[in-house]
């Protein structure tokens, strides 16, 4: 009998507070949406199993507990990430400008982790403190990012300030990052976006 290997992929979701990160995850994993705003949700991550080709994949999707307001998410959040989703609200210009900051922050954090791991490896000779959880240094050109422009449902697009082409241009000039327009509220493109997240993370394994 063929043994089926299960692959665990860690996905982190970054973006300004209020853009809909938690809502996108809830819609994807629990098929639920609430307009009630909760800045802090207890769980570190939620998981969802999916089949990609002949592989059974467990997506482990990490949410912030609102600390993104202070941009201090801690090393555990970033450690071993296989994909990083960057979310903005298409109705809030500032949240789109912040993509640059979150992109850089991710690259900086994973670079710092790499340095720490190397120092520990040198100090402790063979023992790798993070076992196979070590993130390879995130190369901005190859690390799988994905950008989600969320809340496209609002006002039927009348309050929109970040156009699809503006977001797509930013993605193209930052290493051809895939771009999805989403609505956590209407469950628009949510499965598609997370499926692409899983596929790109798997391809990069
Ligand atoms: P987070 O801080 O990035 O995790 O954002 P939340 O998921 O907590 O969402 C912030 C607010 O925006 C909440 O009131 C949500 O109900 C609302 N929201 C999230 N996604 C959407 C969406 O796609 N459409 C609309 N209309 N509201 C949304
Ligand atoms: Mg949240």
UniProtKB/TrEMBL annotation:
Q: How does it sit in the membrane?
A: Lipid-anchor
Record-linked InterPro entries: P-loop_NTPase, Small_GTP-bd, Small_GTPase
State the CDD domains in the record.
Rab7
* Keyword Lipoprotein carried by entry: yes
Q: Which domain of life is it from?
A: Eukaryota
Q: Where is this gene product found?
A: Endomembrane system
For this UniProt record, the keywords arranged alphabetically read as follows:
GTP-binding, Lipoprotein, Methylation, Nucleotide-binding, Prenylation, Protein transport, Transport
Q: SUPFAM superfamilies under this entry?
A: P-loop containing nucleoside triphosphate hydrolases
Similarity-based family? Belongs to the small GTPase superfamily. Rab family.
The entry's protein name is Uncharacterized protein
Q: Which organism is it from?
A: Brassica cretica (Mustard)
